[in-house]
Design goal:
By secondary structure, the chain is an all-alpha fold. It has helices at about 5-20, 25-35, 45-60, 65-75, 80-85, 100-105, 110-115, 135-140, 145-150, 185-190, 195-200, and strands spanning about 155, 170-175. The two termini are about 35 Å apart.
Length: about 200
């Protein structure tokens, strides 16, 4: 059970989350508009301005967050509605969780770099929906992310040396995998660590 915080406290907490994850109100508003209407074209400056003005009122505590917006805020900020409404008195267990979806939906280069260099190399794998970062980026038409990955040399769609892709499409990545010995440890632990069996 939790109690709803004041508009001022909710606004302050939202400001912290938005600044940390998106860097600016406008970046958040752009992604919010895309999430609200995924079939619509890129949000216009007027649409972003209108949404940013509304969000500014919420951040300052002058207005409360609307119930229709709450689900979108939770998804973009990767927190529970309880955390937002309680101003973090009731935090979500998975806040700031990196995912292919979050990365592909963001235009924050800092988030991209953190994700690319994450120790678990999450970017190299598909998620529970069998979707990679590239799949989501194409779905969301996040061409800024794709351009960034190509220009930084993280991925390529056509390699200069055509001899290297006789049997492939020629696309690839320079992002290194985790060392093989660091992966899939459960099987070996079940084989060699007797405590996993004897402590049952």
């Amino acid at each position: 059970m939790f109690r709803t915080a004041t508009n001022e406290k909710i606004g302050a907490h939202l400001s912290e989350l938005i600044d940390r994850r998106f860097g600016s109100t406008r970046s958040f508003c752009r992604d919010l508009l895309k999430l609200e209407c995924p079939e619509m074209p890129e949000p216009t400056k007027d649409e972003i301005d209108k949404k940013a003005n509304k969000l500014s009122q919420i951040r300052q505590g002058k207005k409360g967050i609307q119930i229709d917006d709450l689900g979108y805020f939770c998804e973009l900020l990767n927190v529970s509605c309880e955390e937002i409404l309680s101003a973090r008195e009731h935090p979500a267990s998975g806040e700031y969780r990196y995912s292919n979806y979050n990365m592909a939906f963001s235009d924050d280069e800092r988030l991209w770099e953190n994700y690319i260099h994450h120790d678990e190399k999450l970017i190299l794998n598909s998620d529970e929906y069998n979707m990679t970062v590239i799949d989501y980026a194409l779905k969301f038409k996040n061409y800024k992310l794709l351009k960034y990955l190509v220009e930084k040399g993280y991925i390529w769609f056509v390699k200069e040396n055509h001899n290297n892709y006789t049997n492939t499409f020629g696309a690839g990545t320079k992002i290194e995998r985790k060392p093989i010995y660091e992966k899939d440890v459960l099987d070996s632990r079940l084989h060699y660590i007797d405590a996993l069996r004897t402590d049952m």
